[in-house]
């Protein structure tokens, strides 16, 4: 349990979105927790940690990423485990439910919106998001100047002086095929994760849950540099594996290291 709590403190400090005041307060709280296991297991300390996260994110709530809310939920679960007689079980159950709900809801909204099933969402993302530029260029042989032009065209749509503007991105057939393949793969793996974590909680499916989560982490975050969400998922995976195979811990740590460094290759 202490390992999971320390991981939770670290990734929140590195990847939790807050302002300078919030970061200073979180750093002070985390320092106390790191130097003493008594403080680390203190529910009041975790309550203060969650309070700062919520307080400093109230005003820009509509700007923060989805996984920032998940960080708050998880830190609250860490606080709950500190007042339980079976803290490892509390972390285990909360990790399984949060991972399952996260992927089940993500799959629902992807299926509800036609732009994901058609591949148009990822087609737009592959051409406009700088984080995917190197991968798309390598996979489809597209010159870098094409992405600059795509972002320039999309900027026209953001210009309020041209409300009726219409642009067409110059996507190659390769990008369309790649976008559709990635869309179907994402729905398949996320839907499977939602299913096994929520509806198949029994022991026989224990390794299936971890195998699918690790496959998702390694295949997704080798390409997508979003280390905050990856580290959070890996931490919840560790919390769900505390009574399982010793091989799972290095696997999840490897996923974190990959997510934290993959941007170096794709920059």
Structure description:
The protein has 267 residues and is mostly helical. It has a domain at 1-83. The chain is built from 14 helices and no strands. The radius of gyration is 20 Å and the shape is globular. The chain starts with a helix and ends with a helix.
Mean pLDDT comes to 84
Overall structural class, as computed from helix and strand content, comes to mainly alpha
- The low-confidence runs, each spanning 5 or more residues with pLDDT under 50, are none
The largest pleated sheet is described as:
none
Proportion of strand residues: under 5%
> Helices and strands, in N-to-C order?
HHHHHHHHHHHHHH
Outline: globular
Give me the Rg, rounded. 20 Å
Number of strands: 0
- Compute the separation of the termini in Å: 36 Å
- The share of residues in helices is over 70%
Number of H/I helices:
14
Describe the secondary-structure layout.
Blueprint (H helix, E strand, L loop, with lengths): L1 H14 L4 H16 L1 H4 L2 H15 L8 H16 L5 H26 L1 H4 L2 H9 L1 H11 L3 H14 L15 H27 L6 H16 L5 H14 L7 H19 L1
Helix pairs in contact: 1-2, 1-5, 1-13, 2-4, 4-5, 5-6, 5-13, 6-11, 6-13, 8-9, 8-11, 11-12, 12-13, 12-14, 13-14
């Amino acid at each position: 349990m202490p390992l999971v709590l320390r991981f939770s403190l670290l990734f929140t400090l590195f990847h939790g979105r807050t302002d300078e005041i919030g970061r200073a307060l979180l750093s002070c709280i985390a320092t106390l927790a790191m130097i003493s296991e008594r403080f680390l297991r203190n529910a009041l300390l975790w309550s203060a940690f969650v309070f700062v996260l919520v307080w400093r994110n109230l005003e820009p709530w509509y700007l923060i990423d989805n996984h920032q809310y998940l960080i708050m939920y998880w830190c609250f679960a860490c606080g709950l485990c500190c007042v339980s007689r079976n803290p490892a079980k509390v972390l285990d159950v909360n990790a399984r439910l949060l991972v399952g709900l996260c992927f089940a809801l993500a799959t629902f909204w992807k299926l509800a919106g036609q732009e994901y099933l058609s591949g148009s969402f990822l087609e737009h993302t592959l051409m406009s998001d700088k984080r995917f530029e190197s991968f798309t260029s390598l996979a489809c042989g597209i010159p870098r100047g094409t992405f600059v032009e795509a972002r320039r065209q999309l900027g026209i749509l953001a210009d309020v002086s041209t409300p009726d503007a219409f642009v067409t991105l110059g996507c190659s057939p390769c990008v369309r095929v790649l976008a559709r393949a990635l869309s179907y793969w994402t729905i398949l793996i996320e839907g499977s994760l939602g299913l096994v974590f929520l509806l198949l909680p029994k022991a026989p499916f224990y390794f299936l849950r971890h195998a699918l989560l690790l496959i998702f982490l390694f295949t997704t975050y080798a390409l997508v540099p979003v280390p905050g969400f990856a580290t959070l998922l890996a931490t919840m995976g560790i919390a769900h594996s505390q009574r399982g195979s010793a091989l799972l811990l290095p696997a999840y740590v490897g996923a974190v290291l990959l997510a934290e460094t993959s941007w170096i290759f794709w920059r």
